[in-house]
Amino acid sequence: MQNEESPDRSNVRYVKRRAAKRVVSRTRLVMGLLLIVAIPIFIGVANRAVHENADVIRLGFSR
């Protein structure tokens, strides 16, 4: 036998591919996308509340 220590093992070495390093982790990406969606919704709700309160204040002063 040529290779008595490990006869089943081939002499071919496999080159490991380097894993691409992520710039942004998955959780940060998800949180960023949620913020992009949530901020306009929050601004719309706050704007509606301000207008409703302004109408109530105007009605209160018109008495």
Write a compact overview of the structure shown.
This protein is an all-alpha fold.
Order of helices and strands: H
The main sheet comes to:
none
Gyration radius (Cα, Å) is: 32 Å
Question: Given the structure, what is the number of helices?
Answer: 1
Key structural traits:
63 residues, rod-shaped, mainly alpha, 1 helix
General description of the model:
The protein is mainly alpha-helical and 63 residues long. It is 57% helix and 0% strand. It is built from 1 helix and no strands. It is rod-shaped. It starts with 25 loop residues before the first helix and ends with a helix. The model has no long low-confidence stretch (mean pLDDT 81).
Show the helix and strand layout.
Blueprint: H1 26-61
